[in-house]
């Protein structure tokens, strides 16, 4: 690990600073918080513990930068975004290393996230050029009616640890392209990726104050964001529990809020599915980021007639996954992000076993006990009274259950308060369409385990939140529509 950090140019692990108004800044009271490597449990960096004062300074900086940034042409803003995109790609190895060290994502997967994160900058650089207004037919001959779109102003992005770069650029890309400026509050477990990104923002010459990054005292930072009248829009990605609190908090200042929250994705394998493809898809969907994604398959429903064949194929593929230090390029499954995360996985598996689940592979903590590793696990004989069938596990555990017919599986798949992603595998076109339409989820993977791309809208229904990120839809939240009525 030390070997890896010696080669870093974007961030000095021994001297980490916040990024406010284009400058590297310590906390005003000198306090810090620790970032630990989940592979070893070791502290890798002390990060300034930003709080109210730093947040206020960041908001003021964003406010100062707003008029000039908003005045730039969309083409000029696009040039800046594309410069940062190019720098991200140039620094892919370094960004992936930082991410892997601070939150344990397997290195090769982290490289994939860097590309995915950069793709939001590419997409919104272009989408910003297509923020078209409208003209509306008037009711009298001497009137002309127009709609113009303008940036909402100062925005705040609150991001989770599981995609430290992509969840940030999915918000900053459209915000900056629309002409907004703002502040990012990264997760306390993964602030280093965001701060390394800030180094690229600086390198690209983005004007001071346009992007500010403040990590630290979560409650104080968030109070300032929600109470400061200058902040007009907040985009949050994280747990449903916190999302609900933020809805209440947003009322006082009537903040525009978008929420990308938790999920509990069903993964349905019909009798007519290509089983090899379905098993491969189930591995990709379930074990990505060691099972710590909001769109991970959390409940695998297999038609009873193909249960044995599917399970055999699936278990074989799971057995081939290599667990270990996330910086090892041959590893697919790194550690869980924290001891608490590991504890939750253990609790879900123990609960399932106590209620009759069969461990088909895995089922134990692994490694040297310093890192938070859990064996890729497959559970059979799973029933709906088990916690794993209703709560996000956020770990490498795949519960398999069976169904007899389409109506039953549609009912069970929809029988959740969440509504983020759902997957189905079938070769029957009729079934593909009717089941996709019947599933109450914002994203459907139809014979596709990894549907997320920058050009498509991503977001949830019900307790998975509201608003869409990605696609042409993703820039709307950062724009106000102003109606102008002209009498000649
Ligand atoms: P989390 O605990 O809700 O935290 C997310 C962010 O919110 C972090 O920056 C966190 O800061 C901050 N936060 C925590 N409590 C807060 C409060 N009371 N007020 C304001 N901010 C607060 O979620 P997480 O554990 O980091 O992330 C995992 C969750 O995110 C899962 O539920 C997952 O499904 C969801 N997720 C959803 C999507 C999506 O697109 N729908 C994508 C990725 C993840 P601290 O780190 O300092 O606590």
UniProtKB/TrEMBL annotation:
InterPro entries: Ald_DH/histidinol_DH, Ald_DH_C, Ald_DH_CS_CYS, Ald_DH_N, Aldehyde_DH_dom, Aldehyde_DH_Superfamily. This is NAD-dependent succinate-semialdehyde dehydrogenase. CDD domains: ALDH_F5_SSADH_GabD. Keywords: Oxidoreductase. It comes from Peribacillus simplex. It holds the Pfam family Aldedh. Belongs to the aldehyde dehydrogenase family. Residues 24-483 form the Aldehyde dehydrogenase domain. GO terms for molecular function: succinate-semialdehyde dehydrogenase (NAD+) activity. One of its GO terms (biological process) is gamma-aminobutyric acid catabolic process.
